[in-house]
## 1
Amino acid sequence: MTATTPSPQHHKSKALQPGSRRPAKELCSECGLCDTHYIHYVKEACAFLNQQFNRLETLVHGRSRHLEDENETYFGVHDTMVAARKKVPIEGAQWTGIVSTIACEMLDRGLVEGVVCVQNAADDRFTPQPIIARTPEEVLAAKVNKPTLSPNLSVLEQVERSGMKRLLAIGVGCQIQALREVERHLGLEKLYVLGTPCVDNVTRSGLQKFLDTTSKSPDTVVHYEFMQDFRVHFKHEDGSIEKVPFFGLKTNKLKDVFAPSCMSCFDYVNGLADLVVGYMGAPFGWQWMVVRNETGREMFDLVKDQLDVQPVDSKGDRHQAVQQSIPAYDKGVTLPMWAAKLMGVAIEKIGPKGLEYARFSIDSHFTRNYLYTKRNYPEKLDSHVPEFAKKIVSQYELPE
């Protein structure tokens, strides 16, 4: 993981090549389903062809989310939400390694025969390489997020051919919605789904533009994250952390790098996973864990003795910050860096924290994505936007 990042033209993976089998066309999230014979189910499975959130939530969790409960409206069906971190972190993990630890434990204990996860291509740390990991070593080789469109489901035919009966799949919302629709055709006795929150993925060339535009040393970035302190944290090969204020991003240059699928997605929190692990609802340095059902509880219980755990918290009021961000993003406003740093410091001190920060992030992206869908795919707006997202967006005044 120390090689200099090659130029984008060398990163075109097979799944991202232009092809005829993309029924969602420009809205395709490259989840990998259409690279398999399970493409026959794409009309029902693809979130961008046929949004079926309520039906699938009921199928997976036994009910859909309660919209009279704000936490369920935002974070989906759940039994428990906590903040956690590993007592002994995994070296080189993006956070403390909770996701990798769960996967390794499930393999070690024989609960699953394989883990669908994403390593990186040999010549580039950011080009995703989906695999079925059979050993903890293969799981650990997949640690650290790859913030690019990833064809995780392209390995489903390998699952079928292998004859394995118990599988753990790690993925993001669009991948998991498609997986849930074809799950019954996989011949599995048990499927565990470990989800991560996801927003604003890009193609490999789009990622390069983001890195080149935002980081002082794009070729040495190991990973990055949009964090709770309203800064993008870039970790570099030498271990240093570069922090860039959200409000200093060159929005006018970056508005076109995000995939259309991500700009029309309303499943930030991965509502169809059994267990979700991310950072968005937790204090800085901790992970947010959402147990959605009994299968999720089983995975959480495997590692709880290895974790420090504390209750989730919520402070501040997001509404004014969200309302002000809507026209700013819409118009591509970019502040001078000195002003962006001052604003970031002020908002970090008095702004939303914990679950309120998570709501801030969801509100900001849902209002943006609602406008994007309305303007670019008006015929899909009503059927594509789930009811919980419509309720969230209705809190704000949107431009035409």
## 2
Amino acid sequence: MDKMWAGRFQKNLDSAADDFNSSIRFDSRMYWQDIQGSMAHAAMLGAQGIISQADADAIIAGLEGIRADLDSGALAFDMAAEDIHMFVEAELTKRIGDVGKRLHTARSRNDQVALDIRLYLRDETNGLIGQLKELLCALADKAEAHKSAIMPGYTHMQRAQPVTFGHHLMAYAMMFARDISRMKDALKRMNESPLGCCALAGTTYKTDRMAVARALGFDGIALNSLDGVADRDFGVELLAAYALTMTHLSRFSEEIVLWASWEFKFVELDDAYATGSSIMPQKKNPDMAELVRGKTGRVYGDLMALLTVLKGLPLAYNKDMQEDKEALFDAIDTLKMCLNVFTPMIATMQALEGNMRRAASNGFINATDCADYLVKKGMPFRSAYKITGQLVAECIEKHTTLEELPLDAYRAHSELFDEDLYDAIRLETCVAKRISEGGTGLASVEKQIAFIRSII
């Protein structure tokens, strides 16, 4: 295929260099956005009288035909094309003749690719937001079903205080809700049309950039033509949001791996989301969670790759920026793939409430409530803390628990202890008394679930 830019050159590009330079093998996935942008551009050229309305109509009809044929598979991508932009323009010219050559009036591939990647990222990110909302729905349903199920909460991987399984699930729901918010914020800043910036300095034609922006669903236009074609900060910002989402998926996956182990056995994964061993017939491995945890590193790498590409580039466009796409596409594909598996894994996961409750009975996770009991009877917290610590040490020495320790043993430490202590340190009481907003108390968990449902 002849290069659109070949007029200046006396010889053909070396075949290895041509292959190295080409991006059609990965940017072809943006064909829909490329054609969408070209149709809006052609409509503007016709409306402004830059080309005739008849030519604009012919171009738009030709582009519609190309898109339909690519959608159906009737037209295959030509891997000899340099990129998706040149492929579409060459195919258009093949179909409608020299009129197709008018399409590129008042634009450059620089603003064209900047437009395509924004349109593509907007479409894909909205899809990811939809997937995250499906995950939030699964979490809200699971939390509703287990909003009163008591389990040990941990710090430093040591049993700390009693919480409910619903409350624990809602912690991740809040993280994913913020991920959605971050993506939406990034989309707002990205939603400016670069088309019309041309190569770097604008154009001599009297274009209507705002008309194109409106037609393509943008809120406005890039106000500086150099910036419009030369920056990919929107890509970095979205990659950072994707990476944070993967962080949250990875942390959740780690907990699922722990919970599904025989050491915890808090949950049972559905057979559809676990695998076995080739040699150990008893094994049920949480491979989906482990793979999500492992794939997180890929998205981190994609973020660092784009930051590294951009860090030394002078204005305006440089060919280095072709490297933005594979990093962005890989991150999108990875996150999409992980959410496709993670959400149904959570939805089908069985919570083993009895095992959670038994684990919560050990580890003295009601010790803070024992100290609070003394504080509410007038003792300074630090004194109450010290006495409770001594009681825990005594329980460990006698191989018993705070619930089973006789009242006489308590009263040997303080006369403030009475029979009502045992109700105060019951796990159900410990959870129910957490009445502060955002805590593990039932009313708070129900409020959290209601909030999550309100944003999906």
## 3
Amino acid sequence: MMYDVVIIGAGVVGGLLARTLSEYDLKICILEKENDVAMGASKANSGIVHAGFDAKKGSLKAQLNVRGAELMPQIAKELGVKYKNNGSLVVGFNDEDIQTIQSLYKRGCANGVKRLRIVGKNELRELEPNISDNAICALHAPTGAIICPYELTIAAIGNAMDNGAELKLNFEVKDVTEIDDGWEISSDTETIRSHFVVNAAGQYSDIIAKIAGDTSFNVHPRRGEYMLLDKECGGLVSHTIFRTPTKMGKGILVSPTVDGNLLVGPTSEDITDKTDTSTTAEGFSKLFREDTVKNIPFNKTITSFCGLRSIGSTGDFILSSFKRGFINAGGIESPGLSASPAIAEYIIDMLGVHGLVLIKKNDYSPYRRPAHWFREASIAAKNATIAQNHSYGRVICRCETVTEGEIIEAIHTNPGARDLDGIKRRTRAQMGRCQGGFCMPYIANILARELGIDRKDITKSGGSSHIICGRTKEIS
């Protein structure tokens, strides 16, 4: 079989590209080396839809951030993804910060960001009563927002699959070879062909490019550690609170999440290991020192995690092509999530220049039922659902009030969950205070039953991350 477009990488960029392409009469395939989608930066970032004031005028980051932020509310609505336009504040503490904030204001206006303004300390405290007593001003960006990055990715890929796209998991690309009418892409066990290839492999986009013969750029990881606090802390701030940025990024932020928690992070550390997502005492100490917001209750932390940002060697998004039919989407660091809908548009334009014929389908649907529809239903609607399917009446995760019906639905809805973390990202089961301490065995049993496999084959996140290593009381 010959595909029209193969996308390497099932992150938010690859997902939104696949979703946008699925509007057309094309054979599309998404390749992902992990056991699930959204396994790279798309599952471990700040979840911020940036307004677009930070990137330099004329850069792809500036152009695509503003456009992507404009597109995001409608995309979130169509996909049933939680999105909140909470606004953002860049807080200043001294004269140097004031100069930086003034520069950001001018840059944001030049980039086309709407309703930007600088507020003084009195108005700042009206906007955020818990802001530091030492704060003297802030850049207020009302168009800033928050979203769940992995929910967006899962929903986009699911919608693409509902519209005919294919997804191949555990497909680690080992070879990309140019052939007469396109490209041949191989793993250790399978080879497929496609007229066009889009390399959206995140941290590994430079490696995929080199395999195909393009050595024009490099990507290195930048570690960012986070702490997630309990939902009772989510109201400490209403905006996303930044310090003034440095060359290492936008700094440590304090923000509510769309699910009601409080997020603090990320740290920023350039490394070479593309797999190092460990959390460290040093990273925690940096987060503990964060004082932009007063009295952050770190004793209410329920989990910590580390994400890797893909830092490209060009200083901008790398949207390039070294040969006809092969397109790179590399170095998609912040504001990559915000820009992702516009990056998809940009790549489709590039594919058109390369010769991809785009004919719209008559039966394309941009809509997807929210994964959280049951939780948001009225009591009467819930009772009606339970009357038809009793599994929605059995609560499995008490912390987040997730039912067996929702877990079963997550397993059988595109792209279906195949491991415990996949259930977590789709339903929030295991994301509460106990972090799966009580519900995990029940979820493992449901996975085994629905997938028709043995419980010992259930993993946390694919690969060798098995939960059960053997049975007790067995005699060997």
